[in-house]
Prior knowledge:
The chain folds into four domains: 2-74, Ubiquitin-like (UB roll) (Roll); 79-214, Domain of unknown function (DUF4445) (Nucleotidyltransferase, domain 5); 233-270 and 375-491, ATPase, nucleotide binding domain (Nucleotidyltransferase, domain 5), CATH 3.30.420; 278-367, no CATH class. It has helices at residues 16-25, 36-50, 119-152, 168-175, 180-183, 199-202, 224-233, 269-272, 313-325, 369-392, 415-420, 438-448, 453-462, 472-481, and strands spanning 2-6, 58-63, 68-74, 79-85, 89-96, 101-109, 159-166, 197-198, 211-214, 241-247, 251-256, 261-266, 287-294, 297-302, 310-311, 342-345, 348-354, 365-368, 400-406, 432-436, 463-465. It is an alpha/beta fold. The protein starts with a strand and ends in a 15-residue tail after the last helix. Helices cover 33% and strands 24% of the residues. The mean pLDDT is 89. Helix 3 (119-152) packs across helix 4, helix 7 (224-233) packs across helix 12 and helix 10 packs across helix 14. Helix 11 links the parallel strand 19 and strand 20 (432-436).
Amino acid sequence: MLKTIALSSLHMEYPNAETLKMAIKHTGFDNVSIPLSVLRSLPDVIKKKAGDSEPEESIVLGFKGDGWEVISFSKGPFYGIALDLGTTNIAASISDLSTGERLEELVFDNPQIPYGEDILTRIMRADDDLKRLNSVLITGINGIIKDLCNSAGIRRDNIYAMAVSGNTAMSHFLLDLDPEGIAKYPHVPVVYRPDFLKARDIGININPEAYVYIFPNAGGYIGGDMVAGILCCEMYKDESISVFVDVGTNAEIAIGNKHWIVVGSGAAGPALEGGIVRHGKRASKGAINSVRIEDGNPVYSTIGGERPDGICGSALIDLMAELFREGIIDRKATFVSGDKNIVMTDDGPAYLIVRSEDTANRQDIFVTEKELKAILRSKGAMFTAIRILLAEMGMDFSHINKFYIAGTFGSYIKPKQAIAIGMLPDIAEEHYICLGNTSLKGAEMFLNRWETIDGINSIISKITFNDLSSDKNFMKELSGSLFLPHTDLSLFPSVC
Protein backbone atom coordinates (compact mmCIF):
# COMPACT_ATOMS: atom_id res chain seq x y z
CA MET A 1 0.00 0.00 0.00
CA LEU A 2 3.01 2.31 0.29
CA LYS A 3 6.05 3.12 -1.82
CA THR A 4 8.83 5.64 -1.24
CA ILE A 5 11.06 7.30 -3.84
CA ALA A 6 14.21 9.30 -3.09
CA LEU A 7 13.85 13.06 -3.57
CA SER A 8 17.32 13.09 -5.13
CA SER A 9 15.70 11.97 -8.41
CA LEU A 10 13.98 15.35 -8.88
CA HIS A 11 15.14 17.68 -11.68
CA MET A 12 14.51 21.41 -11.82
CA GLU A 13 13.98 22.31 -15.47
CA TYR A 14 10.21 21.67 -15.58
CA PRO A 15 7.17 22.97 -13.66
CA ASN A 16 7.10 21.65 -10.11
CA ALA A 17 4.26 19.15 -10.67
CA GLU A 18 5.77 17.86 -13.92
CA THR A 19 9.15 17.55 -12.23
CA LEU A 20 7.59 15.39 -9.54
CA LYS A 21 5.62 13.23 -11.99
CA MET A 22 8.69 12.63 -14.18
CA ALA A 23 10.78 11.61 -11.18
CA ILE A 24 8.09 9.14 -10.14
CA LYS A 25 7.64 7.81 -13.68
CA HIS A 26 11.37 7.09 -14.00
CA THR A 27 11.04 4.69 -11.05
CA GLY A 28 8.27 2.70 -12.73
CA PHE A 29 5.08 4.43 -11.56
CA ASP A 30 2.89 6.09 -14.17
CA ASN A 31 -0.37 8.06 -13.93
CA VAL A 32 0.29 9.16 -10.35
CA SER A 33 -2.09 11.80 -8.97
CA ILE A 34 -0.97 14.77 -6.89
CA PRO A 35 -3.56 16.22 -4.48
CA LEU A 36 -3.83 19.94 -3.84
CA SER A 37 -2.31 19.67 -0.36
CA VAL A 38 0.87 18.20 -1.86
CA LEU A 39 1.00 20.79 -4.66
CA ARG A 40 0.94 23.54 -2.04
CA SER A 41 3.99 22.12 -0.29
CA LEU A 42 5.85 21.22 -3.49
CA PRO A 43 7.65 24.56 -4.13
CA ASP A 44 9.30 24.40 -0.70
CA VAL A 45 10.37 20.83 -1.35
CA ILE A 46 11.87 21.79 -4.73
CA LYS A 47 13.73 24.74 -3.17
CA LYS A 48 15.08 22.56 -0.39
CA LYS A 49 16.23 19.95 -2.86
CA ALA A 50 17.99 22.62 -4.93
CA GLY A 51 20.14 23.57 -1.97
CA ASP A 52 20.68 20.05 -0.61
CA SER A 53 22.27 17.36 -2.74
CA GLU A 54 21.25 14.65 -0.27
CA PRO A 55 17.75 15.46 1.00
CA GLU A 56 16.53 13.18 3.82
CA GLU A 57 12.91 13.16 2.70
CA SER A 58 11.36 10.66 0.31
CA ILE A 59 8.34 10.94 -1.93
CA VAL A 60 5.62 8.88 -0.22
CA LEU A 61 3.13 7.17 -2.57
CA GLY A 62 -0.09 5.58 -1.37
CA PHE A 63 -1.94 2.88 -3.31
CA LYS A 64 -5.63 3.72 -3.82
CA GLY A 65 -6.89 0.75 -5.80
CA ASP A 66 -6.80 2.19 -9.29
CA GLY A 67 -3.37 3.77 -9.02
CA TRP A 68 -1.05 5.75 -6.79
CA GLU A 69 -1.23 9.15 -5.15
CA VAL A 70 1.50 11.29 -3.59
CA ILE A 71 0.68 11.34 0.13
CA SER A 72 3.51 13.52 1.41
CA PHE A 73 7.25 14.09 1.60
CA SER A 74 8.83 12.47 4.63
CA LYS A 75 12.07 11.04 5.91
CA GLY A 76 10.11 8.27 7.64
CA PRO A 77 10.13 5.82 9.26
CA PHE A 78 7.06 4.27 7.64
CA TYR A 79 4.61 2.00 9.47
CA GLY A 80 1.29 0.28 8.79
CA ILE A 81 -1.56 -1.03 10.94
CA ALA A 82 -3.38 -4.32 10.29
CA LEU A 83 -6.75 -4.75 11.99
CA ASP A 84 -8.87 -7.86 12.51
CA LEU A 85 -12.28 -6.41 13.26
CA GLY A 86 -14.03 -9.26 15.07
CA THR A 87 -17.47 -9.31 16.66
CA THR A 88 -16.09 -10.36 20.05
CA ASN A 89 -12.40 -9.48 19.87
CA ILE A 90 -10.36 -6.98 17.86
CA ALA A 91 -6.74 -7.76 17.06
CA ALA A 92 -4.28 -5.22 15.70
CA SER A 93 -0.63 -5.26 14.72
CA ILE A 94 1.86 -2.63 13.66
CA SER A 95 4.51 -3.37 11.03
CA ASP A 96 7.57 -1.67 9.61
CA LEU A 97 6.62 -1.16 5.97
CA SER A 98 10.28 -1.02 4.93
CA THR A 99 10.98 -4.57 6.13
CA GLY A 100 7.55 -6.15 6.60
CA GLU A 101 8.47 -6.96 10.20
CA ARG A 102 5.61 -7.11 12.71
CA LEU A 103 6.64 -4.97 15.70
CA GLU A 104 3.74 -5.36 18.11
CA GLU A 105 0.33 -7.06 18.33
CA LEU A 106 -2.54 -6.46 20.75
CA VAL A 107 -5.97 -8.01 21.25
CA PHE A 108 -8.86 -6.40 23.12
CA ASP A 109 -12.59 -6.91 23.62
CA ASN A 110 -14.81 -5.29 21.03
CA PRO A 111 -16.11 -2.12 22.75
CA GLN A 112 -19.55 -2.69 21.17
CA ILE A 113 -20.22 -5.75 23.36
CA PRO A 114 -22.25 -3.75 25.94
CA TYR A 115 -24.64 -2.93 23.07
CA GLY A 116 -25.11 -6.59 22.13
CA GLU A 117 -23.13 -9.80 22.57
CA ASP A 118 -24.00 -10.94 19.05
CA ILE A 119 -23.97 -9.12 15.75
CA LEU A 120 -27.73 -9.41 15.11
CA THR A 121 -28.52 -7.63 18.39
CA ARG A 122 -26.19 -4.81 17.39
CA ILE A 123 -27.75 -4.56 13.94
CA MET A 124 -31.18 -4.15 15.54
CA ARG A 125 -29.74 -1.62 17.98
CA ALA A 126 -28.36 0.34 15.03
CA ASP A 127 -31.88 1.49 14.12
CA ASP A 128 -31.62 4.04 16.94
CA ASP A 129 -27.97 3.97 17.92
CA LEU A 130 -25.81 3.63 14.79
CA LYS A 131 -23.81 6.79 15.58
CA ARG A 132 -23.02 5.52 19.07
CA LEU A 133 -22.01 2.06 17.79
CA ASN A 134 -19.69 3.73 15.29
CA SER A 135 -18.30 6.14 17.88
CA VAL A 136 -17.42 3.52 20.50
CA LEU A 137 -15.80 1.36 17.82
CA ILE A 138 -13.65 4.20 16.45
CA THR A 139 -12.69 5.23 19.99
CA GLY A 140 -11.67 1.66 20.79
CA ILE A 141 -9.61 1.32 17.61
CA ASN A 142 -7.85 4.61 18.26
CA GLY A 143 -7.12 3.43 21.78
CA ILE A 144 -5.44 0.24 20.58
CA ILE A 145 -3.46 2.22 17.98
CA LYS A 146 -2.24 4.52 20.75
CA ASP A 147 -1.21 1.50 22.85
CA LEU A 148 0.59 -0.09 19.90
CA CYS A 149 2.49 3.13 19.20
CA ASN A 150 3.44 3.59 22.83
CA SER A 151 4.63 -0.01 23.08
CA ALA A 152 6.66 0.21 19.86
CA GLY A 153 7.94 3.73 20.58
CA ILE A 154 6.68 5.31 17.36
CA ARG A 155 4.61 8.34 16.35
CA ARG A 156 1.12 7.94 14.90
CA ASP A 157 2.01 10.43 12.14
CA ASN A 158 4.47 7.83 10.85
CA ILE A 159 1.65 5.34 10.18
CA TYR A 160 0.94 5.76 6.48
CA ALA A 161 -1.29 2.75 5.72
CA MET A 162 -3.96 0.61 7.33
CA ALA A 163 -5.72 -2.61 6.25
CA VAL A 164 -8.93 -3.76 7.93
CA SER A 165 -10.47 -7.23 7.78
CA GLY A 166 -13.83 -7.91 9.37
CA ASN A 167 -17.27 -9.36 8.80
CA THR A 168 -19.74 -7.40 6.72
CA ALA A 169 -21.66 -5.89 9.65
CA MET A 170 -18.52 -4.81 11.54
CA SER A 171 -17.19 -3.14 8.39
CA HIS A 172 -20.48 -1.24 8.14
CA PHE A 173 -20.24 -0.12 11.77
CA LEU A 174 -16.70 1.11 11.12
CA LEU A 175 -17.91 3.26 8.23
CA ASP A 176 -21.11 4.43 9.97
CA LEU A 177 -23.23 2.65 7.35
CA ASP A 178 -26.70 1.26 8.09
CA PRO A 179 -26.30 -2.56 8.46
CA GLU A 180 -30.04 -3.34 8.47
CA GLY A 181 -30.06 -4.89 4.98
CA ILE A 182 -27.48 -7.50 6.00
CA ALA A 183 -29.86 -9.13 8.48
CA LYS A 184 -32.88 -9.26 6.17
CA TYR A 185 -33.43 -11.38 3.08
CA PRO A 186 -31.87 -11.11 0.53
CA HIS A 187 -29.07 -9.90 2.90
CA VAL A 188 -27.92 -6.94 0.82
CA PRO A 189 -25.30 -4.63 2.38
CA VAL A 190 -24.89 -0.94 1.61
CA VAL A 191 -21.60 -1.70 -0.17
CA TYR A 192 -19.65 -4.79 -1.16
CA ARG A 193 -16.36 -3.07 -1.90
CA PRO A 194 -15.63 0.17 -0.05
CA ASP A 195 -13.25 2.43 -1.93
CA PHE A 196 -9.82 3.17 -0.49
CA LEU A 197 -10.46 5.73 2.21
CA LYS A 198 -8.35 8.37 3.91
CA ALA A 199 -7.81 7.90 7.66
CA ARG A 200 -9.09 11.43 8.33
CA ASP A 201 -12.44 10.61 6.70
CA ILE A 202 -13.29 7.81 9.12
CA GLY A 203 -11.74 9.28 12.25
CA ILE A 204 -8.71 6.99 12.56
CA ASN A 205 -5.88 8.70 14.45
CA ILE A 206 -2.90 7.95 12.23
CA ASN A 207 -1.35 10.12 9.51
CA PRO A 208 -4.47 11.87 8.17
CA GLU A 209 -3.38 11.28 4.57
CA ALA A 210 -2.89 7.53 5.11
CA TYR A 211 -5.00 5.19 3.01
CA VAL A 212 -7.27 2.71 4.78
CA TYR A 213 -8.16 -0.44 2.85
CA ILE A 214 -11.20 -2.40 4.01
CA PHE A 215 -11.36 -5.96 2.72
CA PRO A 216 -14.43 -6.41 0.51
CA ASN A 217 -17.30 -8.73 1.34
CA ALA A 218 -18.78 -11.09 -1.18
CA GLY A 219 -22.31 -11.04 0.22
CA GLY A 220 -24.18 -10.41 3.44
CA TYR A 221 -22.61 -13.36 5.21
CA ILE A 222 -19.26 -13.57 3.44
CA GLY A 223 -17.21 -10.91 5.12
CA GLY A 224 -13.81 -9.43 4.45
CA ASP A 225 -12.37 -11.63 7.21
CA MET A 226 -13.26 -14.72 5.18
CA VAL A 227 -11.76 -13.18 2.04
CA ALA A 228 -8.59 -12.39 3.99
CA GLY A 229 -8.41 -15.98 5.22
CA ILE A 230 -8.74 -17.44 1.74
CA LEU A 231 -6.07 -15.00 0.56
CA CYS A 232 -3.79 -16.10 3.39
CA CYS A 233 -4.05 -19.87 2.79
CA GLU A 234 -3.95 -19.40 -1.02
CA MET A 235 -6.50 -22.16 -1.66
CA TYR A 236 -7.74 -20.04 -4.57
CA LYS A 237 -4.48 -20.83 -6.42
CA ASP A 238 -4.59 -24.64 -6.05
CA GLU A 239 -5.90 -27.17 -8.54
CA SER A 240 -6.74 -29.64 -5.77
CA ILE A 241 -9.64 -29.26 -3.33
CA SER A 242 -9.05 -27.44 -0.04
CA VAL A 243 -11.27 -26.71 2.95
CA PHE A 244 -10.82 -23.55 5.00
CA VAL A 245 -12.57 -23.20 8.37
CA ASP A 246 -12.43 -20.05 10.48
CA VAL A 247 -13.80 -20.64 13.97
CA GLY A 248 -14.68 -17.46 15.85
CA THR A 249 -18.06 -16.10 16.88
CA ASN A 250 -19.33 -18.50 14.20
CA ALA A 251 -17.63 -21.18 12.14
CA GLU A 252 -17.35 -20.13 8.49
CA ILE A 253 -16.36 -22.71 5.92
CA ALA A 254 -14.98 -22.37 2.41
CA ILE A 255 -14.45 -25.29 0.04
CA GLY A 256 -12.89 -24.99 -3.39
CA ASN A 257 -9.87 -24.53 -5.60
CA LYS A 258 -8.56 -22.22 -8.35
CA HIS A 259 -11.78 -22.61 -10.34
CA TRP A 260 -14.53 -22.17 -7.72
CA ILE A 261 -15.14 -21.51 -4.03
CA VAL A 262 -18.35 -22.16 -2.11
CA VAL A 263 -18.86 -20.71 1.37
CA GLY A 264 -21.27 -21.65 4.15
CA SER A 265 -21.38 -21.52 7.94
CA GLY A 266 -22.05 -23.73 10.94
CA ALA A 267 -22.84 -22.54 14.46
CA ALA A 268 -19.67 -23.92 16.08
CA GLY A 269 -18.26 -20.70 17.38
CA PRO A 270 -20.26 -19.61 20.44
CA ALA A 271 -19.86 -22.87 22.40
CA LEU A 272 -16.20 -23.22 21.56
CA GLU A 273 -15.24 -19.60 22.17
CA GLY A 274 -16.95 -19.37 25.54
CA GLY A 275 -20.34 -18.00 24.50
CA ILE A 276 -22.36 -20.65 26.36
CA VAL A 277 -19.74 -22.21 28.63
CA ARG A 278 -19.66 -20.63 32.09
CA HIS A 279 -15.90 -20.88 32.43
CA GLY A 280 -15.22 -20.43 28.73
CA LYS A 281 -12.55 -17.95 27.70
CA ARG A 282 -10.95 -16.91 24.46
CA ALA A 283 -7.44 -18.22 23.81
CA SER A 284 -5.38 -15.79 25.88
CA LYS A 285 -3.04 -15.92 28.87
CA GLY A 286 -4.44 -18.05 31.67
CA ALA A 287 -6.86 -19.99 29.48
CA ILE A 288 -6.67 -23.77 29.72
CA ASN A 289 -5.77 -24.80 26.17
CA SER A 290 -5.12 -28.53 26.60
CA VAL A 291 -6.65 -31.27 28.76
CA ARG A 292 -5.95 -34.98 29.09
CA ILE A 293 -7.00 -37.55 31.67
CA GLU A 294 -4.19 -39.54 33.25
CA ASP A 295 -4.72 -42.13 36.01
CA GLY A 296 -8.25 -40.85 36.47
CA ASN A 297 -7.25 -37.21 36.95
CA PRO A 298 -7.41 -34.19 34.61
CA VAL A 299 -4.03 -32.85 33.55
CA TYR A 300 -4.06 -29.45 31.85
CA SER A 301 -1.86 -26.69 30.48
CA THR A 302 -2.56 -22.99 30.17
CA ILE A 303 -1.53 -20.35 27.67
CA GLY A 304 1.57 -18.61 28.94
CA GLY A 305 1.84 -21.05 31.85
CA GLU A 306 -0.38 -18.71 33.89
CA ARG A 307 -2.76 -19.64 36.72
CA PRO A 308 -5.91 -21.06 35.07
CA ASP A 309 -8.85 -18.68 34.91
CA GLY A 310 -10.97 -20.26 32.17
CA ILE A 311 -11.02 -22.83 29.39
CA CYS A 312 -10.81 -22.15 25.64
CA GLY A 313 -12.23 -24.02 22.67
CA SER A 314 -9.32 -26.37 21.97
CA ALA A 315 -9.40 -27.63 25.58
CA LEU A 316 -13.17 -28.15 25.42
CA ILE A 317 -12.61 -30.46 22.45
CA ASP A 318 -9.81 -32.25 24.33
CA LEU A 319 -12.03 -32.69 27.36
CA MET A 320 -14.95 -34.14 25.44
CA ALA A 321 -12.66 -36.54 23.58
CA GLU A 322 -10.99 -37.65 26.81
CA LEU A 323 -14.27 -38.09 28.68
CA PHE A 324 -15.62 -40.22 25.84
CA ARG A 325 -12.44 -42.27 25.58
CA GLU A 326 -12.47 -42.95 29.33
CA GLY A 327 -16.14 -43.97 29.31
CA ILE A 328 -17.15 -41.09 31.59
CA ILE A 329 -19.73 -39.85 29.08
CA ASP A 330 -21.76 -41.80 26.54
CA ARG A 331 -22.34 -41.04 22.87
CA LYS A 332 -24.95 -38.41 23.79
CA ALA A 333 -22.46 -36.61 26.10
CA THR A 334 -24.31 -37.77 29.21
CA PHE A 335 -22.33 -38.71 32.34
CA VAL A 336 -22.59 -42.46 32.81
CA SER A 337 -19.96 -43.25 35.45
CA GLY A 338 -19.44 -42.37 39.07
CA ASP A 339 -16.11 -40.72 38.33
CA LYS A 340 -14.59 -38.97 41.36
CA ASN A 341 -14.24 -35.72 39.39
CA ILE A 342 -17.96 -35.41 38.67
CA VAL A 343 -19.47 -32.80 40.98
CA MET A 344 -22.93 -31.31 41.42
CA THR A 345 -23.37 -27.65 40.57
CA ASP A 346 -26.31 -25.29 40.52
CA ASP A 347 -26.63 -26.21 36.85
CA GLY A 348 -26.46 -29.99 37.23
CA PRO A 349 -23.59 -32.49 37.11
CA ALA A 350 -20.21 -31.26 35.88
CA TYR A 351 -16.67 -32.49 35.38
CA LEU A 352 -14.22 -30.67 37.65
CA ILE A 353 -10.97 -29.66 35.96
CA VAL A 354 -9.49 -27.24 38.49
CA ARG A 355 -10.31 -27.19 42.20
CA SER A 356 -9.69 -23.80 43.74
CA GLU A 357 -7.39 -23.64 46.73
CA ASP A 358 -9.28 -20.62 48.06
CA THR A 359 -12.03 -22.23 50.13
CA ALA A 360 -13.50 -18.86 51.17
CA ASN A 361 -13.92 -17.64 47.60
CA ARG A 362 -14.02 -20.72 45.42
CA GLN A 363 -13.26 -20.33 41.72
CA ASP A 364 -13.43 -23.94 40.55
CA ILE A 365 -13.26 -24.52 36.80
CA PHE A 366 -15.63 -27.16 35.50
CA VAL A 367 -17.76 -28.05 32.48
CA THR A 368 -21.35 -29.11 33.02
CA GLU A 369 -23.23 -31.86 31.25
CA LYS A 370 -25.51 -29.22 29.70
CA GLU A 371 -22.44 -27.44 28.31
CA LEU A 372 -21.07 -30.69 26.91
CA LYS A 373 -24.36 -31.19 25.08
CA ALA A 374 -24.12 -27.64 23.70
CA ILE A 375 -20.60 -28.43 22.44
CA LEU A 376 -22.04 -31.61 20.89
CA ARG A 377 -24.54 -29.50 18.93
CA SER A 378 -21.83 -27.09 17.83
CA LYS A 379 -19.47 -29.81 16.64
CA GLY A 380 -22.37 -31.46 14.84
CA ALA A 381 -23.28 -28.25 13.03
CA MET A 382 -19.71 -27.74 11.88
CA PHE A 383 -19.24 -31.32 10.65
CA THR A 384 -22.61 -31.27 8.88
CA ALA A 385 -21.85 -27.97 7.14
CA ILE A 386 -18.59 -29.36 5.76
CA ARG A 387 -20.27 -32.58 4.62
CA ILE A 388 -23.22 -30.79 2.98
CA LEU A 389 -21.04 -28.30 1.10
CA LEU A 390 -18.88 -31.11 -0.27
CA ALA A 391 -21.89 -33.23 -1.20
CA GLU A 392 -23.52 -30.39 -3.11
CA MET A 393 -20.37 -30.18 -5.23
CA GLY A 394 -20.51 -33.95 -5.84
CA MET A 395 -17.65 -34.69 -3.45
CA ASP A 396 -16.87 -36.36 -0.14
CA PHE A 397 -14.05 -36.23 2.40
CA SER A 398 -11.72 -38.30 0.23
CA HIS A 399 -11.46 -35.36 -2.17
CA ILE A 400 -9.87 -33.06 0.45
CA ASN A 401 -6.20 -32.37 -0.14
CA LYS A 402 -5.64 -29.60 2.43
CA PHE A 403 -7.78 -28.70 5.42
CA TYR A 404 -6.95 -25.27 6.87
CA ILE A 405 -8.09 -24.31 10.39
CA ALA A 406 -8.01 -20.62 11.26
CA GLY A 407 -8.92 -18.34 14.12
CA THR A 408 -7.26 -18.18 17.52
CA PHE A 409 -9.00 -21.49 18.10
CA GLY A 410 -7.00 -22.90 15.20
CA SER A 411 -3.72 -22.12 16.96
CA TYR A 412 -4.28 -24.75 19.65
CA ILE A 413 -6.68 -27.37 18.29
CA LYS A 414 -5.47 -30.96 17.98
CA PRO A 415 -7.06 -32.43 14.84
CA LYS A 416 -6.91 -35.96 16.29
CA GLN A 417 -9.10 -34.93 19.24
CA ALA A 418 -11.53 -33.04 16.99
CA ILE A 419 -11.82 -36.14 14.80
CA ALA A 420 -12.43 -38.30 17.90
CA ILE A 421 -15.60 -36.35 18.76
CA GLY A 422 -16.78 -36.12 15.14
CA MET A 423 -16.14 -32.42 14.65
CA LEU A 424 -13.65 -32.77 11.79
CA PRO A 425 -13.58 -35.37 8.98
CA ASP A 426 -11.62 -38.55 9.61
CA ILE A 427 -8.80 -37.90 7.16
CA ALA A 428 -5.04 -38.27 7.67
CA GLU A 429 -3.64 -35.71 10.11
CA GLU A 430 -1.07 -34.48 7.61
CA HIS A 431 -3.91 -32.92 5.61
CA TYR A 432 -4.68 -30.54 8.49
CA ILE A 433 -2.89 -27.18 8.62
CA CYS A 434 -3.48 -24.81 11.57
CA LEU A 435 -3.00 -21.17 10.58
CA GLY A 436 -3.94 -18.99 13.55
CA ASN A 437 -5.55 -15.59 12.93
CA THR A 438 -5.74 -15.43 9.13
CA SER A 439 -7.95 -12.34 9.23
CA LEU A 440 -5.06 -10.39 10.75
CA LYS A 441 -2.42 -12.15 8.64
CA GLY A 442 -4.35 -11.40 5.44
CA ALA A 443 -4.49 -7.71 6.37
CA GLU A 444 -0.74 -7.76 7.02
CA MET A 445 -0.16 -9.38 3.62
CA PHE A 446 -2.00 -6.55 1.91
CA LEU A 447 -0.08 -3.90 3.85
CA ASN A 448 3.25 -5.26 2.66
CA ARG A 449 2.29 -6.54 -0.80
CA TRP A 450 -0.15 -4.19 -2.50
CA GLU A 451 -0.28 -6.48 -5.54
CA THR A 452 -2.31 -8.96 -3.45
CA ILE A 453 -5.33 -6.94 -4.55
CA ASP A 454 -5.23 -9.10 -7.70
CA GLY A 455 -5.64 -12.15 -5.48
CA ILE A 456 -8.55 -10.53 -3.65
CA ASN A 457 -10.26 -9.75 -6.95
CA SER A 458 -9.74 -13.35 -8.04
CA ILE A 459 -11.26 -14.68 -4.81
CA ILE A 460 -14.32 -12.44 -5.06
CA SER A 461 -14.96 -13.59 -8.63
CA LYS A 462 -14.94 -17.28 -7.59
CA ILE A 463 -17.10 -17.19 -4.43
CA THR A 464 -20.70 -18.32 -4.15
CA PHE A 465 -22.64 -18.50 -0.87
CA ASN A 466 -24.70 -21.49 0.26
CA ASP A 467 -27.28 -20.46 2.85
CA LEU A 468 -27.26 -23.63 4.94
CA SER A 469 -30.01 -22.26 7.20
CA SER A 470 -32.45 -22.82 4.35
CA ASP A 471 -30.88 -26.06 3.07
CA LYS A 472 -33.45 -28.84 3.42
CA ASN A 473 -30.74 -31.47 3.88
CA PHE A 474 -28.91 -29.65 6.66
CA MET A 475 -31.29 -30.42 9.55
CA LYS A 476 -31.72 -33.98 8.33
CA GLU A 477 -27.97 -34.56 8.29
CA LEU A 478 -27.41 -32.63 11.52
CA SER A 479 -29.41 -35.11 13.60
CA GLY A 480 -26.92 -37.83 12.75
CA SER A 481 -24.05 -35.68 13.99
CA LEU A 482 -25.46 -35.20 17.48
CA PHE A 483 -23.68 -38.28 18.76
CA LEU A 484 -20.06 -39.14 19.50
CA PRO A 485 -18.58 -39.32 16.99
CA HIS A 486 -21.63 -39.84 14.72
CA THR A 487 -24.53 -42.21 14.16
CA ASP A 488 -22.78 -43.45 11.01
CA LEU A 489 -19.64 -44.96 12.52
CA SER A 490 -18.28 -45.83 9.06
CA LEU A 491 -17.44 -42.14 8.70
CA PHE A 492 -14.89 -42.46 11.51
CA PRO A 493 -12.92 -45.67 10.97
CA SER A 494 -9.87 -44.46 12.89
CA VAL A 495 -12.03 -43.74 15.96
CA CYS A 496 -14.34 -46.71 15.90
